[in-house]
Amino acid sequence: MKKNNKAVVVFSGGQDSTTCLFWALKKFDSVEVVTFDYNQRHKEEIEVAKEIAEDQQVRHHILDMSLLNQLAPNALTRDDIEVKDGEDGELPSTFVPGRNLLFLSFATILARQIGAKHIVTGVCETDFSGYPDCRDVFVKSLNVTLNLSMDDEFVIHTPLMWLDKAQTWEMADDLGAFDYVREKTLTCYNGVRGDGCGECPACELRKNGLDTYVAKKEVSR
């Protein structure tokens, strides 16, 4: 991959997008990040993203996506909807319909404005909650559509697509960002930084991956 390329990272300040930020900083000479404000349940997410972007000295764009909140009532946009896993084949209450479709579309439009050809996102099909817009086939399809829509040649990168959470921790470690990601990011659905509340589905997934990776690392020493 050429080093004189520019990338935009879709950035929430969580474990996955922060790992992707460190990945992009290694791969590209110029990196900017974009965070979407859709009146999400915890504004802390945006504050964390701001702090990390400033700390890593990358330009930070915050785009107003409040319309998504109006269209997609769910546990991430409403305080009165319980965070819970899907049952009997249903999607979790945290699924936001159209979120990645809109986020990646607007990130690509932004990329065009700032002269970037690469969009990086932390979606993953291996350790995920069944969200259809995290699938590889969706991302590849959207990449083609966006290129056709703007008659351009953007590339959407998904460095975590085939990694489970333990492997994502390993990637952060390989990038020299293990402690940073563990301490500075916000993954918790209840808005608790670092290791989180330890009870919500996001925290459980994160902790299981962390425990698996740490145990593997201890064995290999």
Automatic annotation (TrEMBL):
Entry binding sites for Zn(2+) = C188, C197, C200, C203
One BP annotation, GO: tRNA queuosine(34) biosynthetic process
Q: How is the cofactor bound?
A: Binds 1 zinc ion per subunit.
* Classification via CDD domains: QueC-like (cd01995)
Keywords in alphabetical order, please.
ATP-binding, Ligase, Metal-binding, Nucleotide-binding, Queuosine biosynthesis, Zinc
Per the record, the domain of life is: Bacteria
Pathways involved: Purine metabolism; 7-cyano-7-deazaguanine biosynthesis
**Residues reported to bind ATP:** F11, S12, G13, G14, Q15, D16, S17, T18, T19, C20, L21
Which EC number(s) are documented for this chain? 6.3.4.20
Q: What class of enzyme is it?
A: ligase
Q: Which reaction does it catalyse?
A: 7-carboxy-7-carbaguanine + NH4(+) + 2 ATP = 7-cyano-7-carbaguanine + 2 AMP + 2 diphosphate + 2 H(+)
Identify the cofactor(s).
Answer: Zn(2+)
Q: Which Pfam families match?
A: QueC
**What are the recorded GO MF terms, alphabetically?**
ATP binding; ligase activity, forming carbon-nitrogen bonds; zinc ion binding
Family the UniProt entry places it in:
Belongs to the QueC family.
The role this protein plays is: Catalyzes the ATP-dependent conversion of 7-carboxy-7-deazaguanine (CDG) to 7-cyano-7-deazaguanine (preQ(0)).
Q: How does it assemble?
A: Homodimer.
UniProt protein name: 7-cyano-7-deazaguanine synthase
Source organism of this protein record: Halobacillus faecis
The root-end lineage is:
Bacteria, Bacillati, Bacillota, Bacilli, Bacillales
